[in-house]
Amino acid sequence: METYTSDEPDTWISQFCTQFGHDYFVEVAPEFIEDDFNLTGLGSIVPYYRQALDLILDMEPETTVDSNDLPLVEHAAELLYGLIHARYILTKQGLHAMAEKYEDTCFGSCPRYYCDNMNFIPIGRFDSPGVETVRLYCPNCNDIYLPNSSRYLNIDGAFFGTSFAGLFMKMFPEINRQVQARTKEQFRLKIFGFKIHETAPCGPRVQWLRATPRNQNQLLELKNCEFSIPEIKDNEDDEGEINGNGNDEDDDEIIKDTERESDGEDDDGDEDEELDDGIVVEDGNGDNVSEMMSIV
Ligand SMILES: [Zn+2]
């Protein structure tokens, strides 16, 4: 830890935070732990609570701990420290301590190409311990990731909690500025230079719907496209999108073929038809959209 200096005595907290794989943790200020209000409710979750608390604060235990119980107390102390840590990093002091780590890229950065090494923020999906290990949130793509090293896979997500990432971004608006400076672009597949139509199963619209359906109609569209080709309600101008094989006269015929196929006759088409299919087509109005799925 940066805050640790060699002339200070080695405390349990600084030892814990410098252990291998514990570099996501910040050192919780002892004053925070000494305030009973901050520990409300933890006594019922953590076994050997009193002994664990004494261990964390390097205090002489009031009652001697049986040597057989020592590993259990040590384990309880780690759990207790983690749960206190989740509360501490929501305080101003804790947020600033985490911000230092964030700026030093201690939590790693997003592997997604268009996120351009956006720094991760640690996050837990659950506030109860023992449910899931820590995940890493990317503010640019709004996705969560597993840490890239197995050394972090035994760190409980509850030690960071569900609220931290949101509060952290509120506290430090420059993160939003970092996000604004990055592109929101998604990689789009092309075939012979043409974009794949957005309604194709592998096309961007359906990918996008899977990610963020915004209203009931889109939810319905997403649900329907599992079984059939969805009808596009909004009349977006798709200039530049792929338009079949470039021959408008063939489009109607291909659409009819698709309609026939969707009626359950898709297995009796000959191979030539299958070769023609494979690319999504759309008529001139953009509201009678159809597609083929024979590209594997
Ligand atoms: Zn990302």
UniProtKB/TrEMBL annotation:
One GO MF term attached to the UniProt entry: protein serine/threonine kinase inhibitor activity
Gene Ontology biological-process annotations: regulation of transcription by RNA polymerase III
Region Disordered, residue ranges: 231-296
UniProt biased composition (Acidic residues): 234-254, 262-280
Protein name: Casein kinase II subunit beta
Similarity comment text for this entry: Belongs to the casein kinase 2 subunit beta family.
GO CC entries: cytoplasm; protein kinase CK2 complex; UTP-C complex
Listed PROSITE patterns: CK2_BETA
Assembly mode: Tetramer of two alpha and two beta subunits.
Domain of life from the UniProt record: Eukaryota
Species classification: Eukaryota, Fungi, Dikarya, Ascomycota, Saccharomycotina
Role, per record: Regulatory subunit of casein kinase II/CK2. As part of the kinase complex regulates the basal catalytic activity of the alpha subunit a constitutively active serine/threonine-protein kinase that phosphorylates a large number of substrates containing acidic residues C-terminal to the phosphorylated serine or threonine.
Pfam families registered for this protein in UniProt: CK_II_beta
Organism: Pichia kluyveri
